[in-house]
């Protein structure tokens, strides 16, 4: 699936991802390939994603995410 991580200043990441784990308001949740469409708010925590078997992690503050047609867009205010 395609992942875009956007901040007000730039595109932090744009590319393929095998899975994505996000810090949701009710706890962490995972998005896999062909996940049903979803929109969720995010809270402060760790966003992690796997690209070609390698885990990448970033600490984020609040934000929003959308999954639709195998594309995940994450809009966050800050990366810590």
From TrEMBL:
Ranges of residues in domain ATP synthase F1 complex delta/epsilon subunit N-terminal: 1-78
Membrane topology field: Peripheral membrane protein
Cellular component GO terms held in the UniProt record: endomembrane system; proton-transporting ATP synthase complex
Keyword Transport: yes
KW Ion transport (keyword) present: yes
InterPro entries associated with the record: ATP_synth_F1_dsu/esu (IPR001469), ATP_synth_F1_dsu/esu_N (IPR020546), ATPsynth_dsu/esu_N (IPR036771)
Compartments where located: Endomembrane system
Main location: membrane
Pfam families: ATP-synt_DE_N
An MF annotation (GO) of this entry: proton-transporting ATP synthase activity, rotational mechanism
Keyword field: ATP synthesis, CF(1), Ion transport, Membrane, Transport
Protein role: Produces ATP from ADP in the presence of a proton gradient across the membrane.
Annotated family: Belongs to the ATPase epsilon chain family.
Listed name of the protein: F0F1 ATP synthase subunit epsilon
Organism this protein belongs to: Proteiniphilum saccharofermentans
């Amino acid at each position: 699936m395609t992942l875009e991580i956007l901040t007000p200043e730039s595109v932090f990441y744009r590319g393929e991802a095998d899975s994505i784990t996000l810090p949701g308001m009710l706890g962490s949740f995972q998005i896999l390939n062909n996940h049903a469409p979803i929109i969720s708010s995010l809270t402060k925590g760790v966003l992690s994603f796997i690209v070609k078997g390698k885990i990448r992690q970033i600490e984020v503050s609040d934000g929003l995410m959308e999954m639709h047609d195998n594309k995940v867009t994450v809009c966050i205010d800050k990366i810590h």
